[in-house]
Specification:
The chain has 362 residues and is of the alpha+beta class. The protein has 13 helices and 11 strands. Strands 2-3-4-5-6-1-9-11-10 form a 9-stranded antiparallel β-sheet, with helices on one face. A two-stranded antiparallel ribbon has the order 7-8. The radius of gyration is 21 Å and the shape is globular. Keywords: ATP-binding, Kinase, Nucleotide-binding, Transferase.
């Protein structure tokens, strides 16, 4: 494996079809852990942070784990800014690790379902990212990795409080469970404006696709738990699963009602967005996200038949600023990115439709 493999490849395993993937793009479990006898990364010395990074490199790098294969250590101080941005856009590392950690690293599995961040806000952040609605499966894998690491590491743990973390909101289980959901019908009907406050009252939070502080573009929302103290990991995940199941039901029923009551208007919206993607010569990030959302809805409703959801998942990553610059070999001004983005979308859509046509003819 190599850094280039992770940064040049647009599609991770979590972007492929999974259970309920018409609504739920991915499920993520993240466990925050710290090493006993070391200060938290936010107040550690550079020497301590380097010692921790070296320990993980010698102990876990290129070491296999169950069916995920070998883990490869990527060091933040050996990466170019564009490469870091690509990994953030693929949800493999956090913006905080990319921006602030000279002594940070990340152990990545070859299929990119597992990412273990080193010296982020906490010494260890175990992330399992699965396609579709698979929170239980992601939790099971995260717990296995947690046990695997604990064979060599003494965690900072308090009998009353649980796992000790740099941020008080993570104390307890250290668990952050989240799903990324595509909710265009709830947005179009403005039902989302009533749903989000109700979700917040249940101890969950709704954010954009890059987590805290990010904007919900392209009708994509990240739903996650806020409470980590006083509940078991199982209870936290089950509570989130219950809410997500209700959201899936509401989104599907709202899509059906919209299609039945406003079929022509909905088809017009979908085809206009498809035309923008297929024929425009300049397109910005936000417009791309909006059009991809419309076309994704069109695919799910059977309006668009020659493009797959997997292709849209690829475009969702390929058209981000970091990946776009990586793809074209270097820094681009914003106006240059808009031109290259439209060209890339046209190329990918044409290849997809030609491939599907050949398959129909055979």
């Amino acid at each position: 494996m190599s850094l280039q493999k992770f940064t040049n490849r647009a599609v991770s395993a979590w972007m492929k079809d999974g259970p309920d993937s018409d609504i739920v793009l991915s499920s993520r479990i993240r466990l925050a852990r710290n090493i006993d006898m070391y200060k938290f990364p936010t107040i550690s010395t550079n020497e301590e942070l380097q010692n921790i990074l070296t320990f993980f490199e010698t102990t876990y790098s290129s070491k296999g784990f169950e069916h995920i294969g070998q883990l490869e250590l990527i060091k933040m101080n050996e990466m170019q800014p564009i490469q870091k941005r690509v990994l953030v856009e693929k949800h493999l590392i956090s913006p905080n690790l990319a921006e602030n950690s000279s002594y940070g690293g990340c152990l990545l599995s070859e299929n990119e379902e597992v990412s273990i961040m080193i010296n982020e806000e906490d010494h260890i952040r175990i992330q399992c990212l699965f396609p579709g609605f698979q929170l239980t499966e992601a939790l099971e894998m995260a717990n296995k990795l947690d046990d695997w690491i604990e064979k060599e590491v003494d965690y900072a743990f308090d009998e009353k409080l649980g796992y000790l973390t740099s941020c008080p909101t993570n104390v307890g289980t250290g668990l952050r469970a989240s799903v990324m959901m595509h909710l265009p019908a709830l947005v179009l009907t403005q039902k989302i404006n009533r749903i989000i406050p109700a979700i917040n009252q249940l101890g969950l939070v709704v954010r954009g696709i890059y987590g805290e502080g990010s904007e919900a573009i392209g009708n994509l929302f990240q739903i996650s738990n806020q409470i980590t103290l006083g509940k078991s990991e199982k209870d936290i995940v089950e509570d989130l699963i219950s809410v997500v199941q209700q959201l899936i039901t509401q989104e599907r029923s709202t899509r059906e009602a919209l299609y039945n009551s406003s079929q022509t208007q909905l088809e017009d919206r979908v085809y206009r967005s498809f035309g923008t993607l297929a024929y425009s010569r300049i397109i910005e990030s936000n417009e791309t996200a909006k059009c991809l959302s419309d076309v994704r809805l069109g695919i799910d409703l059977g309006i668009i038949k020659d493009v797959s959801r997997n292709m849209l998942n690829e475009l969702m990553i390929l058209t981000q600023p970091g990946f776009l610059q990586q793809y074209f070999g270097g820094p681009l001004r914003p106006e240059e990115r808009d031109v290259r983005r439209s060209a890339l979308i046209r190329e990918r859509l044409n290849l997809e439709m030609e491939r599907n046509k050949r398959m129909e003819d055979e």
